[in-house]
Design goal:
Structural class of chain B: alpha/beta
CATH superfamily of the largest domain in chain A: Nucleotide-binding domain of ferredoxin-NADP reductase (FNR) module
Largest sheet of chain A: 7 strands, mixed
Oligomer: heterodimer
Helix content of chain A: 10-25%
Number of strands of chain B: 14
Shape of chain A: globular
Number of strands of chain A: 15
Largest interface: A-B, 33 and 35 residues
Shape of chain B: globular
Number of domains of chain B: 1
CATH architecture of the largest domain in chain A: 3-Layer(aba) Sandwich
Order of helices and strands of chain A: EEEEEHEHEHEHEEHEHEEEE
Largest sheet of chain B: 8 strands, parallel, barrel
Strand content of chain A: 25-35%
Number of helices of chain A: 6
Number of domains of chain A: 2
Radius of gyration of chain B: 18 Å
Structural class of chain A: alpha/beta
Order of helices and strands of chain B: EEEEEEHEHEHHEHEEEHEHEHHH
């Protein structure tokens, strides 16, 4: 892995996706990055909020880009960034999907995404397409149809199954409604997942019950992103903790003590 | 650029090439910055707090952001002093780092044992006693707020090692000068001030207390005025005692303010989370300032008026 660098990038574009999401494209070099890796982003807003925000890379070609969901002050400011605004970006960070499992021509996959968790999964689906792997089957869930940003793009590169809790798109319910059927439809497939922790816990449990490997792209609050604040722990199976920024974000789900 | 004189004497025979260090708990073991910066350039690095046995630390959530700062309750997760000596120190020596080993214990005896294991270790240049961690059930905080207890810890370590001893002061002592004096009287070579201040964070909507440990240590720009005040008080009353200033130092201006109130050196802490090169940037800025003002780091110390 190449060491992270703190670089200043200008916002090239900022477009709305769905009701509450933005895709921000940046001008600059994100380094040698693979799907699942992330960056720490901050604008020129001084000490409030103090800390940069961790964001999965959505892509680095043609431009480095991230998918933003507004959940607090930091993401609100990022979402409001205008073309020409400068962001400081620490990149690349963390372990990619490819560091946790092989991403090759023989990789058969079921992708399970929840909401903004689509970002690294859209990219890994593109990587899989790029190496000539079988078209992945993707299960993408949200609370409503408005919580499925970039679903159109996902449908272009995967066989896409959609679920919504209110039934406004696809199958009514959560991703677990259709997960067993998805696993049956792709015998032997590895499961790649990213989304809210309870969703990933349920996905890992079903995948393991079906005898499949599951790679989860984790999320946790973190101050630094590069292994020194020690804030971003998740419980490790068998005791102790994993650090999302340096042991992950992409880890074998069996390494996690899901709660 | 010209090379201004940035050398500082921090007591106990230890001269630092410059007064910019990194604070314990914000810079790992000094080996996480390969490719980011050369640790040999810094005045020194203070290790993650070391205990006799390795510690896993607290469950999540361990951190919470606050106005111009953050709370942490990491719980002193660390590899333990023996692994530090065996695995980290040799790598730090290769990088020619000036290493201050920050140590933490819950008893005088364990502080003494930590000092014994670090005494004479090539590549360790000083000890920093963490007598003021707010985040563990039987923490050092009770040592840090009581001059007598703090003096006893300092004495035990002094009797065990020839390494320079820094005692890291808690901002929660009612009389920081009294604690600092007890450290000085019992053989400390310097004090570092300040450690974090206990605080908490609650979600207004749900009522959830954000840190699993319930309370945590506040750091960042929010605490700088408190740090300046304590460093100033200690320096004014005990000018012979070197003080290392810590608390909210993010920029060269912050560092110069800290020198002016009496610190002989500073530690950059939380700012390293925001920018991994923060300490190097402060050093570059200080060098430029000293050139432009035709001054030295030493001449700035205690010039607030």
């Amino acid at each position: 892995m190449s060491p992270p660098r703190l670089v200043t990038m200008k916002v090239a574009s900022n477009r709305r996706v769905g009701d509450a999401y933005r895709v921000i494209e940046l001008d600059g070099d994100a380094g040698v990055v693979r799907s699942g890796q992330f960056a720490m982003l901050k604008g020129a807003w001084g000490v409030a909020p103090l800390l940069p925000r961790p964001m999965s890379w959505l892509a680095v070609e043609p431009r480095p880009s991230v998918l933003i969901k507004v959940v607090g002050e930091g993401t609100r400011l990022l979402a409001a960034a205008a073309p020409g605004d400068e962001l400081t970006v620490l990149t690349p960070l963390g372990r990619a999907f490819a560091d946790a499992t092989e991403i090759g021509p023989a990789t058969r996959s079921v992708i399970v995404a929840g909401g903004v968790g689509i970002a690294p999964l859209l990219w890994v689906a593109e990587e899989l397409g790029g190496v000539g792997a079988e078209r992945p089957l993707a299960v993408y869930g949200g609370r409503t149809r408005a919580d499925l940003p970039l679903a159109e793009r996902m449908a272009e590169i995967t066989e896409l199954w959609v679920t919504t809790e209110d039934g406004s798109a696809g199958t009514k319910g959560r991703v677990t409604e259709v997960l067993d059927a998805a696993l049956d439809a792709r015998p032997g497939a590895i499961v790649l997942t990213c989304g809210p922790t309870p969703m990933m816990a349920a996905v890992a449990q079903r995948a393991h019950a079906a005898g499949r490997r599951c790679i989860a792209a984790l999320e946790a609050p973190m101050a630094c992103g590069y292994g020194v604040c020690l804030g971003c722990v998740v419980p490790r199976a068998g005791g102790g903790f994993l650090y999302v920024c340096s042991d992950g974000p992409c880890v074998d789900a069996r390494e996690i003590e899901w709660r | 650029m010209a090379r201004p004189d940035l050398e500082v004497d921090v007591g106990g025979g230890l001269r630092l090439a410059n007064p910019v260090l990194t604070a314990s708990g914000t810079f790992g073991y000094g080996l996480e910055h390969d490719g980011i910066g050369d640790v040999a350039e810094l005045g020194g690095i203070c290790s993650k707090g070391l205990s006799l046995a390795p510690r896993e630390g607290n469950p999540p959530e361990r951190i919470a952001e606050t106005a111009a700062g953050m709370l942490n309750a990491i719980g002193l997760a660390n590899v333990g002093v023996d692994a530090f000596v065996r695995e980290k120190v040799p790598a730090l020596r290769e990088r020619r780092a000036t290493v201050i080993a920050n140590v933490f214990a819950t008893s005088v005896e364990d502080f003494r044992e930590l000092a014994r294991r670090l005494d004479g270790v090539e590549g360790v240049h000083a000890l920093e006693l963490n007598v003021s961690c707010p985040n563990v059930a039987h923490g050092g905080l009770e040592f840090g707020v009581d001059p007598k207890a703090c003096g006893a810890v300092t004495r035990a370590v002094r009797d065990t090692t020839r390494l320079p001893i820094w005692v890291k002061l808690s901002p929660e002592a009612s009389d920081s000068v009294a604690v600092a004096r007890a450290c000085l009287d019992n053989g400390a070579d310097a004090v570092s001030a300040i450690n974090t201040i206990r605080g908490m964070s609650v979600d207004a909507r749900t009522g959830r207390i954000r840190l699993a440990n319930r309370t945590g240590g506040l750091s960042g720009p929010a605490i700088k005025p408190i740090a300046l005040r304590i460093v100033w008080e200690v320096h004014r009353k005990l000018p012979e005692l070197p003080v290392i200033g810590i608390g909210g130092i993010s920029t060269v201006e912050d560092a110069i303010e800290m020198l002016r109130v009496g610190a002989r050196a500073v530690q950059v802490g939380t700012a390293s989370f925001v920018d991994p090169r923060a300490a190097w940037n402060v050093l570059d800025g200080l060098r430029a300032f000293c050139v432009a003002q035709r001054t030295t780091a030493r001449e700035l110390v205690g010039t607030a008026w």
